[in-house]
Amino acid sequence: MTRPSSGTQMSFARRGEITVAMRTVAQHEALDPDLVRDEVAAGRLVIPANVRHRDGALEPMGIGAAARVKINANIGNSAVSSGIPEEVGKLELAIRYGADTVMDLSTGPDIDATREAIIAHSPVPVGTVPIYQTVEAFEDAADLTAQALLDGIEHQAQQGVDYMTVHAGILFEHLPLVHGRITGIVSRGGALLAEWMVRHRAQNPLYAHYDEVLEILRTYDVTISLGDALRPGSIHDASDRAQFAELETLGALTTRAWERDVQVMVEGPGHIPMHQIEMNVRRQKELCHGAPFYTLGPLVTDIAAGYDHISSAIGAAMIGWYGADMLCYVTPKEHLGLPTAEDVRQGVIAYKIAAHAADIARGRPGAMDRDDALSRARYTFDWREQFRLSLDPERAREYHDESLPADYFKSAEFCAMCGPKFCSMHHSKALDDAIREMATGQ
Predict the structure, then answer these.
(1) What is the mean pLDDT of the chain?
(2) By CB count within 10 A, which of 204, 208, 372, 422 is most buried?
(3) pLDDT grade for 110, boundaries at 50, 70 and 90
């Protein structure tokens, strides 16, 4: 297959050109196209849009400080669960409820066919972790070769993957710093590479061959998502020497990618107690020169098994407020199993809440408009409008109708919580004229 010759969004922006993708992002974000171009040129905004996916169903979107906080939904099969119809169904459900990107993390059978189906059906950017598929061809992770890793990256770029997690920042000299952690290395890609380095007593091949990785990504305009292989997997391990040693390396790798006009995101930690979140954002932004920050959660406590979408949404709202640019969702199945369609729904909604709350806290123009509109509908007892403006209209209607299903109650001035006698807003409405007179002196 011949390689495409198109430039990257960053190379166009640095030449002063505004691409169709940049104009699309500007329209979606209500931004000036010149600002979008300048942010892409500076590396503060990325538009994950593989040239092979842009020719298909992709609707370009932007991730960065000038844009709304985005969320990603992870999907993909495992060796023991799910198939192509189920994964395409999860994709459609995630998009329906508001996922801005999806990552195909398949590790089971038919990985190629699964990814091709997801890309073909996806109007949002698709991300992957290429090492997952590459290692499937080897009996032992220690048998991995640099060429196999490069071939795997190019293969997925040819398929149309828009951004890839590449764990190029975990170095051989970082491994002793993991000693003393409770949960060791929790990144799957990071653990595989750490095993390879220990067995071979050699440097990370993705670091050693980073320039070749960049050349592949530049050719297809794939955004590199610099993976945090040494992210903390428990709050005990948060903000330790291993995490920050890798982060310094990721900062250097960011500038090397920009030198080749490759767009960059930097991935962030998965477990951080609340009092360390702001510091983590500031440190990432400083060391990585303002590159977009993409975080998993973070989870703010480790004891919420079965409810980690809630624990992590707390951290996600905070880290979004402090400056993270995209939040990778966590579902109720985190640490426990492969998410079902319902788990995907709950994870996406939890993270839409977190991202929206962060946009409000960051003072995004218009961020509160939908909140104000829903509040007005609530005050006037326009139940149908309340449902429509909710992040999950079906669930809002379902909960309301459990007790009061008849159409009459869609205009009633009470719900099943207070009933007709104790509804505060019903009584407050009756006082509107009197309060207005008191406020205006008329």
Answers:
(1) 94
(2) 204
(3) confident
